[in-house]
């Protein structure tokens, strides 16, 4: 039987799509305009063509910040996805513990990004912060202001604390949607805990895991506020990610043309990597 499509629903969402497109296109066109021109202020512009793009793509500064971004995103995904799955598997599915766990998981997500950065900035200080003071008292030479390794550890732990809850809630939603009949059949067959996870729970979580990976990758790759508040991109440039470097270039150095070109390249890289993630994971899901 030939399937028929009802396109009337598009008319319901068309005004919203047009509004979003309009609000996104105007800033984007402004950035594109700046990326092919140069200015010395007073609203006077000079044509630069592709000069800024060539300078960005041949800049060691850009590629070093890119490498830091990719490393950070990879570490975040390696930690948060398995940890989120583990926590979701061990959360209660019935009873009074369900709302308690859901509220506790949602609390970090409700805190604004700049407040998260401020919390961890104070928390990690060696003079008044509980974490920094405790680690120093235990004999660890911890100082995220001066030590690059400590700065990275602090930023990673901060992001894990802030965003693992998102993965947990998505995985939990996938788990509670599994009918009890699957578990009953597995119990009758004498399936092990690992077999239940491998053949029942994990396949049912594939789609929510795809969303979790895409969201966490895009968020971690675009991270700005939290590390900027905690470390300011330091010590040195060790936590200067692309977003922080972009702001320094545009506001600190007032190099609007190069910053605009960098933001476009940044945007295209995020789009490309997100498309690769989506294509690979949907292809894997189709094979299951």
Automatic annotation (TrEMBL):
Protein name, please? Answer: ABC transporter permease
A GO biological process of this protein is: transmembrane transport
**Highest taxon above the source species:** Bacteria
What the record says about family reads: Belongs to the binding-protein-dependent transport system permease family.
Q: Which residues cross the membrane?
A: 12-36, 70-89, 101-123, 160-183, 208-225, 264-284
User: Where do the coiled-coil regions begin and end?
Assistant: none
Its membrane topology: Multi-pass membrane protein
Indicate the segments forming the ABC transmembrane type-1 domain, all copies. 66-277
Q: Where in the cell is it found?
A: Cell membrane
- InterPro entries the UniProt entry points to: MetI-like, MetI-like_sf, Sugar_ABC_transporter
GO terms under cellular component: plasma membrane
- Which PROSITE patterns does the protein's record reference? ABC_TM1
Q: Which UniProt keywords apply?
A: Membrane, Transmembrane, Transmembrane helix, Transport
Q: Which PANTHER family match?
A: GLUCOSE IMPORT SYSTEM PERMEASE PROTEIN GLCT, TREHALOSE TRANSPORT SYSTEM PERMEASE PROTEIN SUGA
């Amino acid at each position: 039987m030939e399937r028929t499509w009802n396109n009337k629903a598009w008319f319901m969402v068309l005004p919203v799509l047009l509004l979003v497109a309009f609000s996104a296109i105007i800033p984007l066109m402004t950035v594109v305009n700046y990326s092919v021109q140069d200015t010395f202020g007073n609203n006077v512009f000079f044509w630069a063509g592709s000069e800024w793009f060539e300078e960005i793509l041949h800049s060691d500064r850009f590629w070093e910040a890119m490498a830091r971004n990719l490393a950070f995103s990879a570490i975040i995904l390696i930690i948060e996805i398995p940890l989120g799955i583990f926590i979701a598997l061990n959360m209660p599915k019935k009873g009074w513990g369900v709302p308690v766990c859901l509220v506790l998981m949602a609390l970090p997500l409700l805190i604004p990004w700049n407040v998260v950065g401020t919390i961890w900035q104070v928390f990690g200080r060696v003079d008044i912060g509980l974490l920094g003071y405790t680690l120093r008292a235990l004999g660890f030479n911890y100082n995220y202001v001066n030590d690059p390794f400590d700065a990275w550890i602090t930023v990673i732990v901060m992001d894990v604390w802030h965003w693992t809850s998102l993965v947990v809630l998505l995985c939990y939603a996938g788990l509670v949607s599994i009918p009890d009949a699957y578990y009953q059949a597995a119990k009758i067959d004498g399936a092990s805990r690992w077999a239940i996870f491998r053949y029942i729970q994990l396949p049912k979580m594939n789609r929510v895991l795809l969303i979790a990976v895409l969201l966490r990758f895009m968020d971690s790759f675009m991270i700005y506020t939290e590390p900027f508040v905690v470390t300011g991109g330091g010590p040195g440039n060790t936590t200067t990610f692309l977003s922080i470097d972009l702001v320094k270039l545009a506001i600190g150095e007032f190099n609007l043309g190069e910053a605009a070109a960098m933001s476009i390249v940044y945007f295209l890289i995020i789009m490309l990597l997100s498309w690769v993630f989506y294509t690979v994971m949907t292809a894997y899901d189709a094979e299951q």
